[in-house]
């Protein structure tokens, strides 16, 4: 079922309501702005990988990946009931959360006709409480997600754009611990970042130090290709 977040973002990016939910061949396109096709993907980028690859043969495609940098959590006992709690989640997101999903999209991005936009947002997450269960799991289900605001929009076109997200200067060579420290993320996410940067041509594998793979930044013309 379509979320409020998805509907709101379609309206945010489409020039007008007539440019939303356009049929193109066998595909439904979220929005169209002139000659540019816009796809809003809150879920996995891997789920639209084949669709985007096909559309890129003849069209410019703009994929928007909304990432919540803050979430306001609203919990109810039942649908449309009164909230039993409402608060901001203590956890925060960042642009680097993109890499957790980009690992499933590196055989599409980069592409000369593709723009990947990270929309850093503040969202509401509406939850319905579940009765306690005997097995481990969440005590709620997500009923809806609602857009509060778009705080920042970051457009990525090349592998070099991915590399430019990382603040500061990496040593030569570097490993994923250096990458984690530079980006301020956990090591597991830095490993996914390294995978994406390597597969898109932004960095190259140059050796190994004990169990750590060593990388160097690729030549700028190669990373921008």
Automatic annotation (TrEMBL):
InterPro entries in the cross-refs: DUF8091
Entries under Pfam families matching the protein: DUF8091 (PF26351)
Occurrences of domain DUF8091 (ranges): 3-156
Protein name listed in UniProt: DUF8091 domain-containing protein
Organism: Gimesia fumaroli
